[in-house]
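Instructor's aside before we start: the two examples that follow are unrelated to each other. I chose them only because their records fit on one page, so don't look for a connection. First example below.
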Amino acid sequence: MPRNAEVIRQWTILRELEASRRLTIDDLAGRTGVSTRTIRRDLEALQSAGFPLYDEMHDGRKYWLLEQKAFRRLEATGFTFAELSALYFSRTLVECLAATPFQKDVASAFERLTSALSPGMRSFLDRLPLVMQSKAEPGTPAGAARRKEIGQLLDATLQHRRTLMRYHSFSSDREKDYLIEPYRVVFAQGALYLVAFVPEYRQMRTFSLDRIKSLSVTEDRFQPEEDAEEAFAHSLGVHEGPPERVEVAFEPRIARYIRERVWHPSQELHDRPDGGVVLVMHVSNDVALRSWILGFGALAQVISPPSLVQAIRQELQDARARYADVEPA
């Protein structure tokens, strides 16, 4: 039997007992699809690890329970067993932050969390990442952490203080000085970004923290807009821009994959007679959208808007032209 199956089953037992208050061994066997003998071994293993499981008789039947106030050392934090386990388990999901300034802080927080667990419990929960892992975004920066800049920007954001920033623009390939009103720092697609209002342009702008050359927080305060929307709300990437209706048709062989995922909160799916699907979204018509569509190659076809149809057609023509004189190896 795969080791992961045992971990998943024992985790299921703990969650079922917490949700149902009390269950018999037969109940647990039925819900996990194993024999009662296996369940008994699992209960013994969990008890040995330190989980507060116990049995009691009720109407002539033996029931198993998980102490609802499971860990006395957690009373001060207010964490339930499920909450603590979820946080402990989430270590594998925050590994993608390894290249950010929060790496040491996250590690320190988890060290404090684990102090509430017995060695046996930690050993059990350490096995959970075997069944769920995360992968960092391609191109995640591997450079030195920007702890100082992060601290300055968070301070400026919380205190609504205008900030002087020297920034290297990717589009113009030159450095420029900005006076900004920082609204939030956002972790997206494996990197950190600053969303700030630029009074000079009277608009919100997005800046990559990796291209910030210097910062100076002033004593001048600003009044933030109360209706500032979520960062990159209309983009499939890390861009700002108004949304527009976008329709993309997908071939039958990729349709199931498209249906299984939420690409954007605004999406609608419409089945086609041939088994394909049309995805409708209200999103920004930006480089992130075009890159996403091009990633599907011949399996995707833009229906609207016309400007996006033309942009994708031009990209494909340019790409084809680059390979016109390349001889296959």
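Example two begins here.
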Amino acid sequence: MSVAGQLVLVTGAAGFVGSAVVRALQARGARVRALTRPTSPRRNLMDFTGEVVEGDIRDQADMARALTGVSRLFHVAADYRLWARDPEEIVRNNLRGTNAVMRAALAAGVERIVYTSSVATLSLAQVPADETAPLTESDAVGAYKRSKVTAERLVERMAADEGLPAVIVNPSTPIGPRDVRPTPTGRIIVEAATGRIPAFVDTGLNLVHVDDVAEGHCLALERGRIGERYILGGQDVLLREMLAVIAGLTGRRPPTLDLPRAPLYPLAFAAEALARLTGKAPFLTIDGLKMSRHHMFFTSAKAGRELGYRARPWAEGLSDALAWFGREGYV
């Protein structure tokens, strides 16, 4: 299903993944309409030549206007925070937003939808995890994971019961250029590059270049099966290995101290207490420590078989991220 010449709406188009999807679509010849909030930074859209519209994904009327004439939809926007003063705000934003976007898309007769979920919706009872083990809401750690589980289940139900023409993609941990805010993983890269992470815990991530994630979105639109989910990942990497590569790329000594988690919980409690006063998200969080108990490893074999998805080596994404953070003054 080609997007060449089609009018395509991308929500969250100014964001890290959303702006990469916009670029991938334009490279395929799509006419892209970029939806962004009035308060969102526009740095990632500075060279965008398509149409920019403002709106709130939680507002079905805003979405109805944004979807006028649209045949394809990429719902990438999400409240991606691991901490908030009111954690339930994250759940409300992601569930209400997904519901409003999908209801408006059904009403507008959109022919094909790619919904950006997350590997946060998958169980880690067996690693590497795949698409066959969805996480239950009760087992989700923290508001962000819970919000993504509930929103993904909503999309699945609408696809099965109401004919919503949606394909679900589950990116792992994107890294690379244009991480403006930055994301929680981007913060790790920046902190490590500036020598502010002297130690680590035993955990692991699946790292993937953000541009490969964007390419996977386009492949899901073209080849994905309605109602199915596809992991868009890269390679499994231990945190200590990731930090060592960052140290090598920035001319620093890699951290060698492997910390137990237990002594870190009081520090996380204190950091969150301070954050509630200042409003600035803490680097160390209780939910982050809980999640770090697992090696968050995933396989993209299904996306490889069905979509033709491939990912470049993870270190290329790290190198591109550091180069961009350097140019933009983060490090």
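The chain has one domain: 7-239+294-327.
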